Task: structure prediction
Amino acid sequence: MTSTIEAPRSPYSHSTKKSGVNWEKWGWIYMRVSGVVLVVLIFGHLFVNLMIGEGVSALNFAFVAGKLTNPFWMVWDVIMLWLALIHGGNGMRTLVNDYATSRISRGILKVAILVSVVSLIVLGTLVVFTFDPCPAGAPADLVASFCTSL
Result:
């Protein structure tokens, strides 16, 4: 019995090619692009937080509150949050595809990853865009010292 194995670089025959979007290819591309963008975002974040000004000793609630009042840093942090969570979720999905043996466990794990990523993205985005360091009506002893009008 003889069987022929096609050369690795030979094109697929028309009968075996699936139609539609190749999601694995786009996931692979996303991981490479988001990884490069995340390196820039994370090192920019660390540089501003640790190297500019007084360094790590300046990191406190007032510093974070001041950053989150600036629309530039709000967008920076949200982009970093979204890219990191989707990047991590896609990586976990790849691990589940590689190591989960049954179709049911693979499906359950992928749904759990999706729910976790979506929940954290929604909560993180809400925190960044609704953060108020000086809430109206809060007791004076519970708010930051820089909040003057209560």
